[in-house]
Amino acid sequence: SSPSSTEPIREEPPMASVGYEHRTGTAMTWHDEARQWLRRLFATSRRFDVEVVRERGWGSIWTVTTDTGRHWFKAAHPALRGEAALRQVLERHAGEHVVPMTAVHPGTGWFVTKDQGATLAAGETTKDSRHLAELAVAAGRIQQAVPVEDLTALSLELHRPEDAVINLDHVLAWFARLPADHPARIDTATRVDALQAMERQVRRWSSVDPGLGLAIDHNDLHLGNAFPGPVISDWGDAVISHPFCTMRTVFLNATSIGADTRIIEDAYLRLWGTPTDLREALHVATRLAVCQRLRMWCLLDDPDLVATYTSYITPMIHEIGRQPTIP
User: Fold this and answer.
1) Can you tell me the distance from the alpha carbon of 254 to that of 129, in angstroms, rounded to the nearest whole number?
2) CA–CA separation, 88 vs 234, rounded Å?
3) Which helix (H) or strand (E) holds 158?
4) At CA 222, angle to CA 82 and CA 204, rounded to 5?
5) So what's the pLDDT on residue 4?
């Protein structure tokens, strides 16, 4: 059976770039420490094969194959390592809609999940809207089930719609401070235009706000982060915001595969009321949501990483105040 508890081990920064002196005097990296922790989790398994699937600036993903099958290990960037604590809250209130963790390291936020098979994005080449509609509904049910009080007790960022301009200003200030030759640096005119565009959306919001309160915003919800059920994974970018903001990336995903966004909208909005009454609020919310998506890049505080992904980031800056667009 899958492990459900862990032995506490020495706590070290999960993404430390240098080794540290182990008690035996040999240098040891966080990779070594993680492998030791995983081996203890699966101590009774004769098979223990670890494969590094992905090493990115925001975290590492490994697979661990044991006698009981394949498992996934995640070590997030220190700025994002609150994901395990959030997932524990989500599992407590809406466990049927999230990929369950089977083990959590108490000091580093590393966690393990059982393999769920292929994501819903695998082979998604048709214009079928069903999977995205079901994904949106699952996200909405999580939003309705999880008390916001449980979320505010965590280290989650808060993005109120009415604060979108000041939050965006803080985000754009980071990009403005980049070196003059950095491909993602923005000038004063671009910053002012973006803030004015966001201010117009905040004014629109004040006239269409349906008064639903705040909820969890996955902040990167698409078919590649979901599995049959659907159950939702990869909550590392999540923030507290208006629930409708989480639909921004759903709509981007729908546009990329040519799906009917109206079908997806109606399925999601029926959870909250009458779709025709809520549609404009939904559209404005997706325009506000670009701020928290951009904010994740600032949290990593890595200009070199941002330079690598400029072709993805720059369109978001120009999207501000407009319909979400695919880079």
Assistant:
1) 7
2) 13
3) strand 158-159
4) 90
5) 33
